[in-house]
Amino acid sequence: MSDTGIGASVKRKEDQRFLTGRGNYTDDIDRPNQTYAYILRSPMAHARIKGLNIDAAKAAPGVLAVFTGADTAGLGGIPCGWGVNNKDGSPMNEPKHPVLAEGKVRHVGDPVALVVAETYAQAKDAAEAIEMDLEELPAVVNMEKAIAGSGPQVHDDAPSNLCYDWELGDEAEVDGAFKDAAHVVSIDITNNRLVPNAMEPRAAIGEFDKATGEYTLYTTSQNPHVIRLLMGAFVLQLPEHKLRVVAPDVGGGFGSKIYHYAEEAMVTWAAPRVGRPIKWVAERAESFISDAHGRDHITHADLALDKEGKFLGLKVYTKANMGAYLSTFSTCVPTYLHSTLLAGVYTTPKIYSEVKAIFTNTVPVDAYRGAGRPEATYLLERLVSKAAWELGMDQVEIRRKNFIPKDAFPYQTPVALQYDSGDYDATLDKALELADYAGFPARKAEAAKRGKLRGIGFSTYVEACGIAPSAVVGSLGARAGLFESANVRVHPTGSVSIFTGSHSHGQGHETTFAQLVSDTLGIPLENVDIVHGDTNKVAFGMGTYGSRSLAVGGEAIMKALGKVTDKAKKIAAHIMEASEADIEFKDGKFTVSGTDKEMAFGEIALAAYVPHNFPHDQLEPGLEEQAFYDPMNFTFPGGCHICEVEVDPDTGVVEVVNMTAADDVGRVINPMIVEGQIHGGLAQGIGQALLEQCIYDEDGQLVTGSYMDYCMPRADNLPDFKAATTETLCAHNSLGVKGCGEVGAIGSPPSVINAVIDALRERGVTDISMPATPQKVWQALRAAEMPAAAE
Amino acid sequence: MHNFDYHRPSSLDDAVAALGKGEDASLVAGGMTLIPTMKQRLAAPSDLVDLGGIADLVGIKDDGDSVTIGAMTTHAAVAASSAVPPSLAALAGNIGDAQVRNRGTIGGSVANNDPTACYPSACLALGATIVTNAREIPADDFFTGMFETALEESEIIKAVRFPKPEAGNYQKFENPASRYALVGVFVAKTKDGVRVAVTGAGNDGVFRAGDIEQALSANFSPDAVDSSSIPVDSLNGDIHASAEYRQHLIGVMARRAVAAING
């Protein structure tokens, strides 16, 4: 292994500029003659717009234009990227999602008017002068009330607020499995709604060049080509060759920056109308009411087991909150990214899943780190732990008994997916060792002496990532392909630029991808640049989400690199007057086998651009190759997370005292970056389990609209993580990689809650919901002490 | 933030004058509450009179039986002072984060009387005196309600004088999100007896817990503390803590404070 190749913990190339304030984020970009936008948003969750008086705003100092829904009504709606059908095969309800509200507002934060002025303060002042005549309508926030049929309607064309009623599997067949069951364990859980909170708020700059007719959008996106397609084709009807989308340095996404947002369309559409570039940057409070939220599922599930504790069947009934409008990938999250994972790491033979997607007067909900897979994992691992407790089985034993054995791969689950590789005993063993499971009883006894209740919780999980084969997702309703592209440009002196359709917003691609190149071409890391995030530079790209960058984008780079070395061998054979078959390429050198002839990679690169004697009928000048890669399957990282907590029974405070993660993410390119990704994911998982919760009141007002009430995890909420990886290779990509971006957030939440319940069991508590806040734990303890008081 | 006129007087008299001239003028000390409020456009004073230029307002003076802390003294300075009773220094050292402690001031905190702030509980429990440009106000008369004090218009806090207690301890149960006091209890043994002040919990702001004071006067031990007589309807309830939970936490925090004092 070279010190810059595959497997090396290379320090991140990009950190120098990030840590010294030299990043280039959208808000750092100022275009000549730029103007500023402020977006007036609805203060009400549901209201009819009876009138908008913008006269005073238009006349306010510095104001250049004020636009409302009346101006943008001719534009297309913000599109949804994934169609899901009902049980009867009919398509889902897909109400229009206007760029600016038309006739009604449907959530607090729904955009009502766009004010463009010379300065941001002037735009904001002018917005205060807009008279909004809103007739408040009853709002619906609660999913049960929303589908009851008699309450408020979010959209007239979605009866009972139902987006779709979908199913996977045959309910009657699974019912059959329950008839033979010795035990049935049931659970009702809520997967709490989260606000993504990327460190960089969203921003967008729209620009129009009258000379060329070209539009440019600078935006905080995880996938600029996808935005170009969605906004250009569906909203603004602009052709690709006249629309450039740039996503420069982006400060965190976690899914929330995948989607096409109305603000991007507003500034792009308004730029030629104002005749100058328009910049919009969200304030933090605005992020809370305009970034797509995450999770928000309510689920009932039943697990059938035989008398030995073997799983026979699983039925899962989920209600998923869509919010007021369908965000880009909202519809696939509770279905194709959730229900297809309900086998987990287990051999459960029969599984049925029903999902009702429901509109409410809240911010749209979409994928957030893990997207559907954390919801599936949380459900399964809570249910499995509950089954072990109810049956009096050990938490490890019930899992091992039901694991898909390592010699059973490829393994076809009953819920559509085929797992290619894995070894769940290996990650469990590793985690048990790191967590010192054997020493837990002694630690629990010691904690009891200090008056603390100590508990241990498990989560053994698998997830599907590297999203994914176009043919598969297309058959499931995706309205896009999910391949990736890469271009390798070798410059005459042997340095290399890689143009990738993946997008880095914290993942470290500039380092990891450069390691692939260094390893393959045998050139130093500093001779490699990774170019991404600009539709005018990169040929095409589907972007970064679903832990897909290395498994899909990295493979595309490897494929293009293979084409480059093939071409370079042809050049080497020509120059060294040898047969192409005799050329070997190793450690950056081309040699002719059986001779001492050799040429360095740089010499071949130069020859490619100085082709004085090339036989042009056989050999083209230049050294640059393009590849598109569409994988055979998803990849399936998995592992075991073990959490240990101490609960203070006086206050209800839960402290995570040990957090162990043993993950199989396939081949590891940069162990340091992988560990960092796992740490970040664990922090978010612990945040969801103990701290974070988005709360709306009954009127649809966001109660947790700032950090005063929305609790983000901080360093002192987290222990020193014990993280390790084991390795089974992905069977269908050349690198054997699986993906590591989401495993921490997917695997950890149930381990934390199972640990809390384990700690509280001796006091008679059998259930606690996320987030397990001090108040909630204290109330559960009190209710268990005084059963009557709980009523 | 709306536009405003900014003044930075170098004397209290000039500050009073500037305050009187503005149509809707406001004093600003560390600005840890006012500036964010203005940025959110929830406050829009016509004039800001910055007390940061008045040198007399900064500093800590040891008077033997008491310590006088200038209104513009930062939390960080109080935390680092050996002249300040250790319980008070510890309280100051755990307010907000490092940035807040280096900007926020005792005068600003006391004048704002945020119901979840730490300092008001120390003032009440230690029997402090609020010294203004016009008079001296005992802490027991100063905090008149949520965000309300006995300060008159154009009255400016010069200093806070704390009698040194025999012993004291402050226990804060933090709001998980904001890290303000969800419940904070300051227990002090003073020459006038045991005083117990509670912040974060009362729906009328900081208050003294009379029953707990009486119980501890008779028996200064954690077992003597019982918070159940504090009326639940006098306490705040929100998404982080119901009034019942706050009532319970007052007892837990008071017991921990007493245990810390007893060592």
Automatic annotation (TrEMBL), chain A:
Domain Aldehyde oxidase/xanthine dehydrogenase a/b hammerhead, chain residue ranges per copy: 20-138
Glycoprotein listed as a keyword: no
Matches recorded under Pfam families: Ald_Xan_dh_C, MoCoBD_1, MoCoBD_2
Keywords from the UniProt entry: Molybdenum, Oxidoreductase
GO terms of molecular function: iron ion binding; oxidoreductase activity
SUPFAM superfamilies listed in its UniProt record: CO dehydrogenase molybdoprotein N-domain-like, Molybdenum cofactor-binding domain
Protein name: Xanthine dehydrogenase family protein molybdopterin-binding subunit
Organism: Marivibrio halodurans
From TrEMBL, chain B:
Keyword list, A-Z: FAD, Flavoprotein, Oxidoreductase
Residues of the signal peptide: none
Pfam families per record: FAD_binding_5 (PF00941)
SMART domains associated with the record: CO_deh_flav_C
Flavoprotein among keywords: yes
Gene3D superfamilies per record: 3.30.465.10, CO dehydrogenase flavoprotein, C-terminal domain, Uridine Diphospho-n-acetylenolpyruvylglucosamine Reductase, domain 2
Ranges for domain FAD-binding PCMH-type: 1-167
Alphabetical list of InterPro entries matching this protein: CO_DH_flav_C, CO_DH_flav_C_dom_sf, Diverse_Substr_Oxidored, FAD-bd_PCMH, FAD-bd_PCMH-like_sf, FAD-bd_PCMH_sub1, FAD-bd_PCMH_sub2, Mopterin_DH_FAD-bd
GO molecular function annotation: FAD binding; oxidoreductase activity
PANTHER family linked to this entry: XANTHINE DEHYDROGENASE SUBUNIT C-RELATED
Protein name as it appears in the record: Xanthine dehydrogenase family protein subunit M
Organism the protein comes from: Marivibrio halodurans
Lineage per the UniProt record: Bacteria, Pseudomonadati, Pseudomonadota, Alphaproteobacteria, Rhodospirillales
